[in-house]
Amino acid sequence: MSAAPVVELLRRAERQEPRRPSYEASLLFEHAAMAIGHVRDRQLQRCNRRLETLFGYGPGELNQRNLQMLYPSYSDYVACGRSSGRQLERQGSCRIERLMRRRDGSLFWCQLSGQAVDVSRPSAGSVWTIEDISARKQAENALREAQAQLEQQLAEIRRRHQEDLARASRLNSMSEMAGALAHELAQPLAATLNYLHGCQLRLKQGDCTSEQLDGVISRAIQHTETAGSIVRQVHGFVRRHVPETTATDLHALIGDMLGLLDHQRRKLGVRLELLLAPAPPTVMVDALEIRQVLLNLIRNAYEAMATSPAEQRLLRIESRPLAGGRVEVTISDRGPGISPEACSQIFDAYFTTKQDGLGLGLAVCRSIIESHGGSLRVASNPEGGACFRFDLNTVMNP
Prior knowledge:
Blueprint: H1 4-16, H2 23-31, E1 35-40, E2 43-47, H3 49-55, E3 65-66, H4 74-91, E4 93-101, E5 107-116, E6 126-132, H5 134-176, H6 178-205, H7 210-238, E7 246-249, H8 250-260, H9 262-268, E8 271-275, E9 282-285, H10 287-304, E10 314-322, E11 326-332, H11 340-343, H12 361-371, E12 376-380, E13 386-393
Parallel strand pairs: 8-10
Antiparallel strand pairs: 1-2, 1-6, 2-3, 4-5, 5-6, 7-9, 10-11, 11-13, 12-13
Helix pairs in contact: 1-2, 5-12, 6-7, 8-10, 10-12
């Protein structure tokens, strides 16, 4: 039931005898299924039994009482009075959802719907219906909590899916580099073996000094450490890991990946040009994930130049500080470049321009950079080829 019938009867009564409600209005007040009250000057002139019961008061205890007693606090009483007063003046009605206070001090959610008896005469007051909406609010809160939990679960599923994609991309990169890595391992291991065989032979012949033996063994150790370093890098690259953000030297990460891919660079005869910022930027990143981005972009650049004229094969890596404590890395090649059609899709998952590619590398790279608060972009190299740029936040010095 709305307040409209009571309001209309009150209007009639006001015209006939302003201070005395009609018999019909009294019947509607007393027998309405909804809590209803007549308010004038923030004072409850009269209310029905349903409203008294709703707030925990006995018959007649709320009549001629100020509304402040029904609000949680004086500030709530003042604020609600101002807002509802403005709405009644402008529109002749208003609807509010808010907490109200019972006689025992407990708070509960109500929907208050008011209608002015006569907009032209504010002194006539307004009629209000009040509905307990606590159950609805509880259901809404439960729904919001369920939605929040669902969003958390979906976020966790997306995170795990992204981690699986990233690892699949790393495994694919390592499988494609297997031949080059085998060559990189074979060189130091063969050198180590030669040194050790030489030591064994000299020992049998008995014509070597301890100083000579120490020098040969030291060189063998160096080559073994080189092989071990390659194995550790590959193992760290393909293993499952828990994402961990640490302060990291960005230039050191670039150096690591250039070292890992140096055999491919030498094989293709690619010249390397490093234009790095004078002060090595420290970035707060997951180092393995940024290594993956660098490895993909550098490998793609090498592969793009495989069919270019030998004198044209140049990889340029630049880093420069940006405003707001950021750093930008640019990786440029002198390959055939990327068509406009491919540029619009190049970061989409499963899109690839390679005959045997999976289409995961660049999609994963973009996701990694975006998860670090940056962006990965592609553009044409003015000198021919393609430029990939990404930016990261640096650790600001105090």
